[in-house]
Amino acid sequence: MKIGIVSRSDMDEAVNLTEKILKHLSEEEVFLAPEIAKVLGEEGTPVEEMDIDSLVTIGGDGTVLRNLQKLPEIPILGINMGGRGFLADVNPEEATSVIDKMINGELGLRERERLSIKISEGWNSIALNEGVVRSEEPSGIISFEVFMDGELVEKIEGDGLIVSTPTGSTAYALASGGPILHPDVEAFLAVTLSTYRPRAFPLVFPMSSELKVKLLEPNKKAYVTVDGQITKELKGGDVIIFERSESSAKFYEWKGKFYEKIGEKL
């Protein structure tokens, strides 16, 4: 099996674990991301150029999200180095044994739905967790309209709007007052940010629907942020379109009990 490894290079524990895993995989074809390769004195390969079957991330959920953007079609095994770890849920002490199970085909794969995010001018991206539309200024208020399948849902004034997948419902959306969605629920979630008397939100809507956000103030800048990793500037009149992506993200299943994980992580 051809395996890529991405690791936090600023954490001694992550560096040491990467070195241990690299020795353990001496008989496999392994590619290291440039940052961790430099620390270990090895040859590195940019993640987006890796020709691999599986990607092992060593860090937290942020490490998973950053590298999913670079290799969206490759199954990921996430090793958690101390955070909550909803996506990276393998403990460091069990890392080598779980990797062995991955190589031997003993781990199942779970596909997680993603969210396509487009701007009317042509820019587009894909989120595993969420897309967030918010003011350029901290705590700034923006005015926008939300449409569902062409029907006006509500005109809103506030800090912004989160549109989340079931995977992202335990992240920013939950912290902002949204409900938790089971990964098997075929629905997305929209949660407003610090809005005055929202009537229709939080809103759970079918994955078959298309949600549009139209910015109303011509001279007020805003941003859309994807998974906390990618940010695009918006201008008044822009329409941001959220809909189900044609491609899902693939993760190796290790701790598959959803409600047990909720109890442990939250």
UniProtKB/TrEMBL annotation:
Q: Which UniProt keywords are listed?
A: ATP-binding, Cytoplasm, Kinase, NAD, NADP, Nucleotide-binding, Transferase
Query: A Gene Ontology biological process annotation?
Result: NADP+ biosynthetic process
Gene Ontology terms, MF aspect: ATP binding; metal ion binding; NAD+ kinase activity
Specify the superkingdom: Archaea
According to UniProt, the reaction catalysed is:
NAD(+) + ATP = ADP + NADP(+) + H(+)
List locations, semicolon-separated: Cytoplasm
**Which InterPro entries has this protein been placed in?**
ATP-NAD_kinase_N, ATP-NAD_kinase_PpnK-typ_C, NAD/diacylglycerol_kinase_sf, NADK
GO cellular-component terms in the record?
Answer: cytoplasm
Q: Name one Pfam family in it.
A: NAD_kinase_C
Q: Which residues form the active site?
A: 61
Q: Which cofactor does it need?
A: a divalent metal cation
Instruction: Give the residues the record marks as binding NAD(+).
Output: 61-62, 66, 129-130, 159, 229
Q: What's its top-level EC category?
A: transferase
In short, the EC number is 2.7.1.23
Job of this protein: Involved in the regulation of the intracellular balance of NAD and NADP, and is a key enzyme in the biosynthesis of NADP. Catalyzes specifically the phosphorylation on 2'-hydroxyl of the adenosine moiety of NAD to yield NADP.
What family is this? Belongs to the NAD kinase family.
Q: Which PANTHER family match?
A: BIFUNCTIONAL NADP PHOSPHATASE_NAD KINASE, NAD KINASE
Q: What is this protein called?
A: NAD kinase
Gene source species: candidate division MSBL1 archaeon SCGC-AAA259D14
